[in-house]
């Protein structure tokens, strides 16, 4: 296998206003079925429960602040690196944060896992959390 140079470049998240406006328009135009037997089950056996979908769409339309999260993510140095596969020359671009790496072994994750396990059971769908 041959090695080829990798090209590092700075990166920041910047969603165009038009894309965010389009998302809000699509959410506003989305038709959510009227309540019926299949979409009223909280266990999700027949798909996403209607109330979870309604709450998720409302959150994405009215509650989620993309620019706030974009700013938070951009507060960390970020880069992209383009590397070429040594076998066929295919180019791959990888995005990463320039920060201390995440824990890399199970013992380092244990405190987080113990915290998550101690929380009430929840179902998370489209960034809206519903506790059953």
Brief synopsis:
By secondary structure, this protein is of the alpha+beta class. The protein is 36% helix and 20% strand. Helix 1 packs antiparallel against helix 2 (50-63).
Structural summary, described in words:
- This protein is of the alpha+beta class and about 130 residues long.
- The protein has helices at about 15-30, 50-65, 65-75, 105-115; strands at about 5-10, 80-85, 90-95, 120-125, 130.
- Helices cover about 35% and strands about 20% of the residues.
- It is built from four helices and five strands.
- The model has no long low-confidence stretch (mean pLDDT about 80).
- The chain has one domain (about 5-100).
- The protein has a three-stranded antiparallel β-sheet, with no helix packed on it.
List the topology elements.
Elements: E1 7-11, H1 17-29, H2 50-63, H3 66-74, E2 78-84, E3 91-97, H4 106-117, E4 122-125, E5 128-131
Antiparallel strand pairs: 1-2, 2-3, 4-5
Structural class: alpha+beta
Q: Could you spell the SSE succession in H and E letters?
A: EHHHEEHEE
Assembly state: single chain
Shape, per Cα inertia axes: extended
Helical fraction equals 25-40%
Tell me the number of helical segments per DSSP (H or I, 4 or more residues long). 4
Uncertain residue ranges: none
Largest sheet, spatial ordering of strands: 1-2-3
Separation, N- and C-terminal Cα atoms: 53 Å
Give the overall average pLDDT: 81
Give the domain tally: 1
Q: What profile does the largest beta sheet have?
A: 3 strands, antiparallel
Total count of strands: 5
What fraction strand? 15-25%
Radius of gyration, in angstroms, nearest whole number: 21 Å
Organism: Apodospora peruviana
Family: Belongs to the peptidase S33 family.
GO molecular function, one term: epoxide hydrolase activity
Protein name: Alpha/Beta hydrolase protein
């Amino acid at each position: 296998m041959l090695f080829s140079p990798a090209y590092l470049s700075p990166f920041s998240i910047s969603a165009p206003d038009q894309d965010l406006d389009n998302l809000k328009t699509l959410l506003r135009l989305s038709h959510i079925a009227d309540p019926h037997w299949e979409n009223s089950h909280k266990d999700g056996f027949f798909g996403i429960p209607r109330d979870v979908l309604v709450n998720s769409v409302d959150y994405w339309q009215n509650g989620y602040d993309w620019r706030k999260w974009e700013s938070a993510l951009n507060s960390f140095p970020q880069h992209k690196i383009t590397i070429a596969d040594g076998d066929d020359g295919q180019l791959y671009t990888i995005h990463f944060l320039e920060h201390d790496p995440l824990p890399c072994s199970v013992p380092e994750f244990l405190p987080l896992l113990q915290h998550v396990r101690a929380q009430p059971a929840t179902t998370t769908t489209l960034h809206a959390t519903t506790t059953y």
